[in-house]
Design goal:
alpha+beta, eight-stranded mixed sheet, five-stranded mixed sheet, 18 helices, about 35% helix, elongated, binds adenosine-5'-diphosphate, binds magnesium ion
């Protein structure tokens, strides 16, 4: 009988192994950065093109490699980090498996340039699909540069499986941050398509967090440091007046390795529960230092989960550490008046029911406790728009112009000239249409009108922009800055005038007519949230819909707003000119109708 079993050729075995280590550009960035840091580099420069799909380059000033090591490095199970079986538990601790380079070289075109500091000449090596194409001596700076081109060029199935560029870029940025945060002594930079996204000189952890997540966090990071038995837990918890609308700025590290843990997150969420609005998340960055025998850093190289042998104790320790940090902030006497008022507002009252009413900066929100006072400061009128949420009722002129007619649209009216129009509870427009009783819920209806108007602006005539009196600066995280650049054109067409000012800073000069300047930050916060979600799906029309929805939601009249008969008529007529009048962009019904038959039924 013929023998069927054969050994796989090395190149194919490597490709299969690569499936575990290299899933996307972000995994290559992670492996190369970790290698650079293991090599003692004090400076690591990452540069990517097209989200890393075209090129990932990592340059370090570390130990470099000899010609022989350069060649060996790409062999499977080649590692300089483990010498004997005793070192085996270091595999568990640090994940050294000597697999990363072999895996990367199996699925990309790799160029390695490296020189030992003590040598005259370095080595230049090209490897493609696990095959060394060229190796030669070359004059090079000390240290190592890896260039990884056309990831998955030889595995089309995997290449097609990659997400859109914005989504892959975000993952690269996340990975970069996860490596840069616990190593603040290493100067790390990241360039994307020639744009310097991060440049993080050696600094303290705290300074590094500010450089990454935004200077608004200054004075908002509560440091704590507690040790018990074999574990030390330290780090920073965001004060409760900063909170995030989305997950992603909650970081855990164990022995300098990033990990995720829903369980430990829960411990912290519990502490903040009463202090920040529902559906928001605290900022935190927490380091666990644990002797290795108490932690199993999963042997799977790409998984960011770990196993602790006594998770319940960690949960309790973590919770009490964070609690104490927050309590100290609460009591600290040296804070000024404004801060103590802020604190009282935060501790003495439940968070505002409607997070829409909070002011937001970038992806961060700052609660404005003054709003609870009887006469709020007129901060919105400062910016050239009428104040919202005033003591009595909202000024009637607000939004007057918004439902405004669109001359390009068909002018047929849904509401007869002589139809009655009343407003019920400052919320429902009651009138008649085609012999039916019509009840419109004004806020969702207005949202629908605005939403379609913004969407039309994408294809048709751009909406006019109205200059704001005081241009507003948005300080953003690098990821959000990139996201905004991505949608700049769509924003422009919808009437936003946004310009880059400095790295990670945008200035808003103009907004669609009718948008209150005081709402700009909230609107952009919402936009960024939607862009993150839609961007992950990678579709431009989804992006536009997300933006239109965000702006519509933030600019529509409220459910408690007195309308003039002209405004009511305008809303009713505009609503029925919409393509999809029955439902708001967030899925709520906009109106109900009752026929005379139904009414008769009702009175039977
Ligand atoms: P591991 O990191 O698990 O040892 P890798 O495949 O990532 O496995 O790397 C293989 C070996 O190549 C490393 O052990 C190290 O000796 C060498 N190496 C990789 N990158 C660098 C670098 N940037 N500088 C110096 N040596 C490196
Ligand atoms: Mg490695």
């Amino acid at each position: 009988m013929q023998h069927l079993i054969q050994l796989l050729p090395d190149a194919i075995a490597n490709q299969i192994a690569a499936g575990e280590v290299v899933q996307r550009p972000a995994s290559v960035v992670k492996e190369l950065m970790e290698n650079a840091i293991d090599a003692g580099a004090t400076r690591v420069e990452v540069s990517i093109r097209e989200a890393g799909k075209a090129l990932i380059q990592v340059t370090d000033n570390g130990s470099g490699m000899s010609a022989q090591d350069a060649r060996m490095a790409f062999e499977r199970h080649a590692t300089s980090k483990i010498r004997s079986a005793e070192d085996l538990n270091r595999i568990l601790t640090f994940g050294f498996r000597g697999e990363a380079l072999a895996s990367i070289a199996a699925v990309a075109q790799v160029k390695l340039r490296t020189r030992l500091p003590g040598e005259e000449l370095g080595t230049e090596l090209d490897i493609e699909a696990s095959e060394i194409k060229r190796i030669q001596a070359a004059a090079l700076p000390p240290g190592t540069t890896f260039q990884v081109r056309n990831l998955f060029y030889n595995v089309p199935a995997r290449r097609n499986f990659l997400k859109s560029n914005p989504s892959e870029t975000r993952q690269v940025l996340n990975e970069f941050v996860h490596i840069a945060v616990p190593r603040p002594e290493v100067h790390c930079s990241l360039t994307h398509n020639d744009t310097l996204v991060y440049d993080l000189p050696a600094a303290s952890v705290q300074e590094r967090l500010l450089a990454i997540f935004g200077a608004e966090l200054r004075d908002k990071l509560l440091r704590f440091d507690e040790a018990a038995g074999y574990v030390r837990i330290w780090g920073f918890a965001g004060s409760p007046d900063v909170y995030r609308k989305q997950r992603g700025e909650q970081l855990f590290f164990v022995n300098s390795r990033y990990f995720r843990s829903a369980y430990l997150h829960h411990a912290i969420a519990g502490v903040y529960q009463e202090m920040i609005p529902k559906e928001t998340h605290p900022f935190y960055c927490i380091f666990f230092e644990i002797s290795p025998e108490h932690v199993d850093v999963n042997v799977h190289p790409t998984k960011s989960e770990v196993k602790f042998d006594d998770e319940n104790t960690l949960y309790a320790l973590l919770q009490s550490a964070v609690k104490r940090a927050l309590a100290e902030w609460h009591q600290s006497p040296e804070l000024g008046m404004a801060d103590s008022e802020l604190r009282r507002a935060i501790y003495d009252s439940r968070p505002a029911e409607e997070p829409e009413e909070d002011a937001t900066i970038g992806s961060m929100s700052v609660r404005l406790p003054e709003r609870k006072a009887a006469a709020p400061p007129d901060w919105q009128s400062l910016f050239g728009a009428p104040a919202a949420g005033g003591g009595l009722s909202r000024p009637a002129q607000r939004q007057m112009t918004l439902p405004g007619a669109d001359p390009a649209r068909e002018r047929k009216d849904a509401i007869a000239e002589d139809a009655f129009l009343v407003q019920f509870q400052q919320r429902y427009i009651v009138t008649s249409r085609n012999d039916r009783l019509l009840i419109i819920d004004q806020r969702p209806a207005h949202q629908r009108i605005l939403y379609e108007r913004f969407l039309r602006a994408r294809e048709g005539a751009p909406l006019p922009s109205q200059q704001v009196l005081f241009p507003q600066t948005l300080e953003l995280s690098a990821a959000d800055f990139l996201a905004l650049q991505e949608v700049e054109e769509i924003l422009q067409r919808m009437g936003f005038e946004v310009k880059e000012f400095a790295r990670n800073t945008m200035i808003v000069y103009g907004v669609p007519a009718g948008v209150a300047a005081g709402k700009i930050r909230e609107i952009f916060d919402q936009i960024l949230e939607d862009v993150r979600v839609a961007g992950a799906a990678g579709s431009r029309s989804r992006l536009a819909e997300g933006i239109a929805r965000a702006v519509a939601r933030r600019t529509a009249i409220s459910s408690n707003h007195k309308l003039s008969p002209a405004e009511m008529r305008n809303i009713a007529n505009e609503l029925f000119r919409c393509e999809n009048p029955g439902i708001s962009p967030s899925g709520k019904p906009t109106y109900r109708e009752l026929s005379s038959v139904e009414l008769e039924e009702y009175f039977r």
